[in-house]
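User: Could you write out the 3D structure of this protein bound to calcium ion? I've included everything you need below.
Assistant: Certainly. Input first, then the structure.
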Amino acid sequence: MEKTYKLKGTPFGIDRQYPREIARARSELYNSHEARDARSRRLKMQIRYPARLYVEGKMVKDKFPDWYDMNGLKPYNRTAEQMFLTEDLNQDGIMTIAEIDAVFDKYDANGDGSETRNEYTMRICGTDPDLYQLSNYLYDDYDVDGDHHLDKHDYEAFHLKMDSNADGQVDKTEFVVYWVHLFEKYEWMGVHGQMGHCH
Ligand SMILES: [Ca+2]
Ligand SMILES: [Ca+2]
Ligand SMILES: [Ca+2]
């Protein structure tokens, strides 16, 4: 919806480059039996992002049922900056390992000091189901040693990954650059092997 709104007023309705796969799916939808039928009966027909056919406000076809919508996080650099400002608890412009640890404490549902994939992704499901797929990818990134638990060791390693000039500190610029890259990397990734949906 938000996307549709943003596109209003551009000369051809589409102001950004859709990846070819989406463009093709949208064109297939437009030429589908259902769409032609709707047009011939003068019903209200819409193709919503990324490739969903709506007739009279009802979705009749979805080419990417597992699509996850990251538009809510755009622009990524603003989101990343906002994350840094909230997570930099002592507001000194530096993200420490202890501050990263504190961020994850809120996902530690059973309070054992380590966060499992399930605890993390369930919490994301509770706040924003659209981000469930992304949350699985992010968990892979946080869980540097891949043992499906987040603990001090992972926070140290994650801190190291963000510290691009290797001076032992993660400043706002490093943080934002790292996160924009992460968001962009996972934007077109498709469905994570773990699970399609919140459950
Ligand atoms: Ca700090
Ligand atoms: Ca781990
Ligand atoms: Ca640094």
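The CA atoms of residues 93 and 172 lie 6 Å apart.
User: Perfect, thank you.
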